[in-house]
Design a protein that fits this description.
Two copies of one chain form a homodimer.
Chain A: H1 10-25, H2 32-39, H3 43-50, H4 53-76, H5 88-93, H6 102-112, H7 115-137, H8 147-163, H9 165-172, H10 179-195
Helix pairs in contact in A: 1-2, 1-4, 1-6, 2-3, 3-4, 4-7, 6-7, 7-8
The structure holds a DNA duplex (30 and 30 nucleotides).
DNA sequence: TAATGTACTGAACATGCGTTCAGTACATGA
DNA sequence: TCATGTACTGAACGCATGTTCAGTACATTA
């Protein structure tokens, strides 16, 4: 028999397959039967372990939220190198292997308005706020007139390649989460952060 | 009997109620029976007019796409005053009465990856690209190293209050689509467009 | 006036859903 | 060795869904 905390239990397998399917198609579009089939178990077992489909969803939410709690903790402990003020997302997303369903699931969490997503969004905002305050204190960033809005703006710019990946890829012709697209996006954003919009040396402002 | 092009036909009523419900809860979460009840007709009539639920969804998509086609046409004809380079969304959204379901439906269209949403996204991007090129030609905007990415960046910043309305409201404490929030967001964005991030006069860059 | 066609209803149908449950297999503890 | 409990199956249940269809009402055309 497998131990309770062994992540190879059928329970964990069900949860992982559900995470993948939910990330790809959304929880409402995925049936208990399909999750069960993907996990190689019976539909009844899914309910046995999670009580209901909603319970499974909550378990997946909690699992993902836990992963990000860990990342936030590592970031604030300085174990994750957050290169500059706007790359929290890059630092986090770089932690997952290429095919990981977690970024896609995070996207759904953030856009759905779920409690778990709201929580992560708040956490993320607080971390971003702390970062900008540190940079301001060190004189690396101007104080800014509206710190709350500015932080939200920076955070959202950081998040947008994840949230609008497909649409941006379609329109600029390169995956903004891929190696090339990420670089181009980051450079484009930094150009504006540095020089503003109205001139490379500001002569037209 | 009402004429075919009278927007008070039962067909139009069904379409409008569907638009509202789809915008609020998403097409998958809304049943044909609920739409029928909201429109004051029988479920059978919904199918009679639109062939299927999917057909109704397509009709709503087409209707909304048509509305935005009209707005794009008016904008490029100069009938809509697009104050500065980044306020296409503001100009468009200002055209709808306060309780209109169209912005909410647009949000779903843009985020869902549907064909209709992709089409609007492309159209929007093309319009943004044309605008920035005009501004560059007039010397009001620096040329920029990566015009495609910069346009996408500006466009997305413009769109983000619509796409992340609830999350931003939760975190900054004011509805970014409301009167006060829109102003604060616009000012925050313009501050960065003007001065960049690293100093109000650029002295720290 | 009679014929035709369109708008519309309401009951019914098939399907697929989440969930239940009786029962099997098997590991653990007494 | 026996009792207990947990993991698990597979058939079944009840329900809500999208859709169908026979039938009614009524406007239009001839």
């Amino acid at each position: 028999m497998r131990s309770v905390h062994d992540d190879l239990t059928a329970r964990a397998v069900i949860r992982d397959r559900a995470l993948e399917l939910f990330a790809a198609q959304g929880p409402d579009a995925v049936t208990v039967r399909r999750i069960a089939a993907a996990a190689g178990v019976s539909p009844g077992l899914v309910i046995h372990h999670f009580g209901s489909k909603e319970g499974l969803r909550a378990a997946v939410d909690e699992h993902v939220a836990g992963v990000f709690d860990g990342l936030f903790a590592r970031a604030s402990a300085g174990e994750l190198d957050v290169a500059d003020g706007a790359s929290l997302a890059e630092a986090f997303l770089g932690q997952f292997p290429p095919g990981s369903p977690v970024p896609g699931y995070l996207r759904r969490l953030l856009l759905s308005g779920d409690a778990a997503g709201t929580e992560i969004f708040r956490h993320w905002f607080a971390a971003s706020r702390a970062m900008t305050e540190t940079l301001v204190a060190r004189g690396l960033l101007a104080p800014g007139r509206d710190p709350e809005v500015r932080t939200a703006f920076l955070m959202v710019n950081d998040l947008v390649p994840l949230l609008l990946r497909d649409q941006l890829a379609d329109v600029v012709g390169v995956d903004p989460l891929g190696p090339e697209g990420a670089v181009r996006w980051a450079e484009g954003v930094l150009d504006i952060y540095h020089g503003g919009l109205f001139g490379t040396e500001g002569e037209l402002a």
